[in-house]
Write the structure tokens for this entry.
Amino acid sequence: MTAPYHSIIGDRRKGDSPNSTDGVVPYWSSHLDGAKSELIVPGPHGSQDLPQTIAELQRILRLHLRKSGEARTTIAQTSY
């Protein structure tokens, strides 16, 4: 079983993927098949403090927290 993963990719050219780059890595090298989601943000390789990146990280964390809570509830219910 593979752990779920998501991609947030910077694009300095702002919208010409798959030919874009974040200034360090080209899009084609950043893109991962099988990612649960992929968001391209208009910025460089170190785009972790962009509002779009922060919002996406919050979305991903909330998604996994909900799934984690559901799993715990299911386990607790089946153990009775």
Notes: The mean pLDDT is 85. The chain has one domain: 7-78. Residues 6 and 28 are 15 Å apart (CA to CA).
